[in-house]
Amino acid sequence: MSTRPHGAGSLAPVRPEALTAALAAAGVFAALHVSADGLLLRSAGDLHRDTAEAAAAALTAATAAIRGCGAAIGASGSPRPGLNRFCGEFDAVTLLAQPLADGSLVALAGDGEADLAAMDFALSDLAAEVRRRTSH
Questions:
Q1: For residues 4 and 36, what is the distance between their CA atoms, to the nearest angstrom?
Q2: Looking at the DSSP assignment, which residues form a beta bridge with residue 86?
Q3: Residue 92: left (phi > 0), alpha (psi -120 to 50), or beta?
Q4: pTM, two decimal places
Q5: Do residues 17 and 42 touch, judged by C-beta distance below 8 A?
Q6: Which terminus of the chain faces fewer neighbouring Cβ atoms within 10 Å, N or C?
């Protein structure tokens, strides 16, 4: 379990138990909660801290790029299209990410045999946990 240092930003990271629960989905080996500015708030699973931090920054950049592409192709009437989630499928890894209204995002990484439906369900639960924490 990796956590951003206390006091390093106003966004409270998701509870460690919520990230650990997401790891129970078939094939999931890492769960991340990332701030709007690309900083790793908390991670769980089999990623080294440096790798998780690099992934957090890359996920934030990918979110901006995908939103830009969506705007260019008319995915929404606004310059910032509503991006619900995105998936990257590689030879041996599946990455599923969901940007949230507070600007943060949650993401899961699974192995090549990961069950995408199970990952989607776990990601939805994780996103709901973040929304509950930020609504208080």
A1: 14
A2: 97
A3: alpha
A4: 0.86
A5: no
A6: C
Closest by Cα among 19, 54, 61, 13 to 37: 61
Tens digit of each residue's pLDDT (9 = 90 or more) over 80-115: 557 889 999 999 999 999 999 888 999 999 998 899
* Single-letter code of the amino acid located at 25: A
73 vs 58: which has the higher pLDDT: 58
Written as one letter, the residue type at 133 is: R
Gyration radius from the chain CA atoms? 14
The amino acid that residue 60 corresponds to is T
Q: What is the largest CA-CA distance in the chain?
A: 40
How far, in whole angstroms, is CA 50 from its chain's centroid? 16
Cβ atoms of residues 62 and 75 within 8 Å:
no
